[in-house]
């Protein structure tokens, strides 16, 4: 039986009271969350396969660290424009698709008549 390694997604920012909802992900996805600019932020970013930045709920220095690390390492970065569970989960889903390579599939071509 082939057991695949889960895709690690780091959510940076958001609301701590919604933590359990952010982390509730299907199998194959491992969600970690950081709500403040902490000493372990850069190491956690480096360990992630994809990143979600909750734009309105993160400090400017933390956002800059995340953006720079994503650019430097080529890690997919999605932005959630609000801390709502639906927006963050949608960004997690987009980050998962980008990290798993599904977004690189070629589109189906249509032949013209």
Layout of secondary structure:
Elements: E1 7-12, H1 19-23, E2 29-34, H2 41-47, E3 50-54, H3 60-73, E4 77-80, H4 85-100
Parallel strand pairs: 1-2, 1-3, 3-4
Helix pairs in contact: 2-3
Write a structural description:
The protein is of the alpha/beta class. 37% of the residues lie in helices and 19% in strands. It contains four helices and four strands. It has helices at 19-23, 41-47, 60-73, 85-100, and strands spanning 7-12, 29-34, 50-54, 77-80. The chain has a four-stranded parallel beta sheet, sandwiched between helices. Strand 3, helix 3 (60-73) and strand 4 form a beta-alpha-beta unit. Helix 2 packs parallel to helix 3 (60-73). 30% of the residues are buried.
Mind describing the biggest β-sheet?
4 strands, parallel
| Arithmetic mean pLDDT | 87
Shape: globular
The count of helical stretches stands at: 4
**Low-pLDDT segments:** 102-113
Sheet with the most strands: spatial strand order: 2-1-3-4
> What's the N-to-C terminus distance?
46 Å
Measured as a percent range, the helix fraction is 25-40%
Q: In oligomeric terms, what are we looking at?
A: single chain
What order do the helices and strands follow? EHEHEHEH
Total beta-strand segments:
4
Roughly what fraction of the amino acids lie in strands?
Answer: 15-25%
Class from helix and strand fractions = alpha/beta
Question: How big is the Rg?
Answer: 15 Å
């Amino acid at each position: 039986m082939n057991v695949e390694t889960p895709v690690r997604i780091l959510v940076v920012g958001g609301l701590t009271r919604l933590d359990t909802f952010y982390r509730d992900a299907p199998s194959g996805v491992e969600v970690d969350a950081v709500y403040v600019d902490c000493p372990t932020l850069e190491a956690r970013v480096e360990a992630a396969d994809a990143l979600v930045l909750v734009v309105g709920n993160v400090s400017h220095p933390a956002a800059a660290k995340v953006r720079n690390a994503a650019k430097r390492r080529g890690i997919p970065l999605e932005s959630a424009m609000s801390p709502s569970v639906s927006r963050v989960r949608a960004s997690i889903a987009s980050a998962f698709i980008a990290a798993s390579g599904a977004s690189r599939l070629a589109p189906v071509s249509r032949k013209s008549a």
